[in-house]
């Protein structure tokens, strides 16, 4: 067997969702109204701007853009002649932009930042040096704050060090679409590739705008560029690279600043023209405007007396624009999320250089780090307005904020009065029936037996193994880097290097930086690859080992053959739901100490994908009157003693608690919810750990054939005689 | 400046509960009825069972003169409606400042327990009652919906019921028909969702969840005189214990329970002791498990769980993993010692495992036969061990009662350690036995220290034994 049992013929084409409706929205023409999510609106803007190629690597919140285009291949991409790929990594996606260096082609790529930007940095920095002819846009999902699953950093510093314009749009659908289209013009005007950042909530924001026709790019797959271009000044080698660096500051960034001014990209709201004001990054504008309304300084439309400069481009700043805004003010508040406070320090510098006597405030009233949600921004604004605002507003801001805090605290006190403990934490976890869960149950059992061991984890669902109930996993350093990150750990702890990696991580970076390095350097290492057929954490994205490309083209690269090609000869494939097999393979791999890489492929298809497929098939079969089996696990309430050992080894969302019907039992008992998909993990766990006889697996047959029905009724007759009823 | 402000609706749910579909229905209904609106969410990996929220704003004016300003985040004292598919998610919204006197709260009352609650060895669950009380006190209005009771068991329409309740609340100016049109337009399970919506529109919030309270079995015949000797308040419990032990073994065994209870005085201590003594005396050995697994009605219950009728084929596998001490439990001690394997430590994933076909007449008959062997039990190895441990515990309780009633009650509660099967049970009994070493002496010389030890042991018994140290 090779691969995660993914039946290629049955793979659901679009990953987690179906995009037929979305594809229709991408086809809207001039004057029609688009209703939908912002990330789809941005995708539509790309088509309206006439892109020749699009690429990307999936990751929340950008996946949608890739998924929709993959699904729109025939209807949209082919007629417009647009090239599209889901790249092998963010580096691959960024490298696509090379097409815009010599040729007048507009191209867009996308990924999750800041992690994806880090991966793509080599290509981006080189591209920023060479510069572009056709407009090049990188749409990055700024995953900072609530709901984020990555380390917290902002992309701003990256844009600054590579001299890339960074658009941080105000979240209004029409503005967003307009800025996406203008990004290409800005890129072409300045010869710089452009970043556009979108926060999570902004990507999922719904709204509407008036659509335009999609534009057929001048050069496209149906009308190729006539001939290849050669220009040595586009090669990043001295002396060209020295000139590139000079050019960035002499020509390109000034061109961006001119573009911003000429097109009114940044927005100025004069307000009451007072001697105070707010300078905010575009992405924080909504929070600022809502805060002002709550403080009594704006209405429901966002109309406000407070002077405001909204920076829809946060790099580069336009010193003249900022100086003009500050010139008649005693102070300004800079609303800038995260740290370092790059905008605030630049603005202070601008005030200083222009001898403007305006106090630049920001991080003195707003938090140094963390997401600027409305409550956070409002508290800072209230402080600022109470100190520097005009007389009437001062009092109102202070009183309104105090009233809001009073209302909040009074309400919250009801909760702390009623309950001693906080609400339960609910971090994400493995889904019901997840084939990755058993590996962590096995590792937990083995560690109970053999003592703790350092386990290097990877990016992806596997990382949930480090959380309750498994608490297995010690470090995580990046996508595909688990094996490499154990390199100096195993030897110093006198244990094998033990690393867990998803198949997504393996193909992203794990094969080269992990497996090849381990094989070459003769690591004493155990690599556990969770081969579930997809990059599941992002929503079941296709991988080289899935069996097809996102566009549906049959194409498969085997993990096993790739490893064998490196000379790895200790490879064991285990059925992930078979716990004794998994434990046995792990024991064997851990005990085979020596300068050799041992690989365990824990194998079963992502249960979300299986369920999505099976549910439809079953529903159809039932309707057609065909034989269908229904499986579920259960717990006998009378047999369960309520010590919850199974919970501590399973962690399945469907394995839950229920009040005991028996007055003699003081703790709730185990209970299997209807959401059970009968993966069998709970049964395997009670067997492997020798827990209890409470669990059972029940399989019922609907629409049975004559033979089965007859056998069943004979059996039932006998059971009745035995008093089973 | 205009006084109009958007109406804020915060939805709290767990990944997979249908919160996203609910937000989509709201957005679509607003579009159909012509009110400007915006929704947003933070799904990400929270789709995988974690807490997730959706935020929706609607501007209560059609065709406004300029586009309203919508926010991506809810804010303190700015949420008009908090709708939750799980009560602690409504509690979480309150904790984060999103429920104030401005807010109407509509929440499902059924708990979905978090991992943190499930992994405690004792009862780690958060009670729904106090959460609802807090929401009631903190909000403008609370509507608590027992979804299962409302939907007659079909809890998967909870989001549609919630939508109905939102429509009926009148907080949004959207007519009910526009919500119906949104459900139809979305095209997902339209009929059941429309049915759910109608249930929600009709819901009052005064619906009672079915009572899952514990019910006591009546005492078996022949115990009337014995029962009369007990406090009236304790009689249902004692009767239940007698019924349990008669079912477990016989009337004589039930009388042994009464004899043991004679040594306990005081109503509180008796109550605390009786339930634990009866539970322990009916320890689950293989004979008991076989008896329970072949209870009349069990197969019918399982059939209804998976939704098949009485004559449809059912394949049932009971997961058994009997260890040495369990297999040999009903043999006399001298014989049990002769069966090999007593001393070898079982390694994870190894040893005898059975998937017993209890749904098959022959599998059932074999198990039924095993369950009928209870006459062997009193002569068996496990029985002797358990009775010894019970006597030791009871002795500790009575001795403590002579000196300090609260210590006696806590000591009675220590019987929680006698739980589980195999290694779990051995480890629990050992914790208990260790605590009772030098019990009499410690009662005399270090009462305070002993109380601390007992309290700590109880805490440990209820905690998550695998919790990381930090």
Description of the molecule:
- The complex is a heterodimer of chains A (725) and B (470).
- Chain A has 725 residues and is α/β, with parallel strands linked by helices.
- Helices cover 40% and strands 17% of the residues of chain A.
- A 7-stranded mixed β-sheet of chain A has the order 3-2-4-5-7-6-12, with helices on both faces. Chain A has a 6-stranded parallel β-sheet with strand order 16-15-17-18-22-21, sandwiched between helices.
- In chain A, a hairpin with a 5-residue loop joins strand 19 and strand 20 (554-555).
- Chain A is globular.
- In chain B, helix 1 packs parallel to helix 6 (158-169) and helix 13 (286-293) crosses helix 17 (361-371).
- Chain B has 22 helices and 8 strands.
- Chain B has 470 residues and is an alpha/beta fold.
- The model of chain B has no long low-confidence stretch (mean pLDDT 92).
- Chain B starts with 6 loop residues before the first strand and ends in an 8-residue tail after the last helix.
- In chain B, the strands form 2 sheets. A 6-stranded mixed β-sheet of chain B has the order 2-3-1-4-5-6, sandwiched between helices.
- Among the domains of chain B are: 7-202, Pyruvate-ferredoxin oxidoreductase, PFOR, domain III (Pyruvate-ferredoxin Oxidoreductase, domain 3), CATH 3.40.920.10; 286-379, no CATH class.
- The chains are: A alpha/beta (725), B alpha/beta (470).
- The interface between A and B is large, with 140 and 149 residues.
- Strand 26 of chain A pairs antiparallel with strand 7 of chain B, so a sheet runs across the interface.
